[in-house]
Amino acid sequence: MKIGGSIIKGEDANLNLKIISEYAETIKRLVGEGYNIMVVVGGGSLAREYVNYMRSLGASEAVCDEVGIDCARLNGMILIAALKEAAYPYPVQNFREALKLLPLNKVLVLGGVQPGQSTNAVAALLAETVTADYLINLTNVDGVYDKNPLKYSDAKLLREVTASELERILSSEPTGAGEYPLFDPLAIKIIRRSGIPTWIVNGKNPVNIFKLLKGERVGTRILK
The domain at 2-223 falls in which architecture? Predict the structure, then answer.
């Protein structure tokens, strides 16, 4: 699953410790039910704040990407702290390390991996690497809309969307460091080629994960 940084830390200065704890309990419950969980955590407003500082000082986009990666890993450490012994104690640095750590039967948490990739792309690549059964992207909206619901009040929720349609809908959104939209082009490409069932779901309520796994109609499914 991918937990957006907007869920862990919104636009204010404080981490949402309540929802972090709820996610930790949800993940541990899923593990107890037999699910193998890997989590990618986004950088959210923390990443945007530091990336903006770096840009104002003339840093390159590649360096800004590195800063975003570090911020996402910091958010990952917060989730690991909440998961306690259920999680591997440090954010996983790359996909080879993730494969090596699988036999430990611990929840593996990742932030960013390398410059030029959003954490959405990291989640898609990780799902492809481990041949995941599902990829669940938890964000701050109910799913994919025909246009940005944070900007347009008449945006309509789409229950299913193809990767190509999603690419078209998001084509006008910014893709600089710390500015990735719901999904960036690389993430969409990976989803299209892997064919792994993918959903975009409102992550403000972790219960939505259970609803989705029970077959309830939640969020938007991305079709190949």
Answer: 3-Layer(aba) Sandwich (3.40)
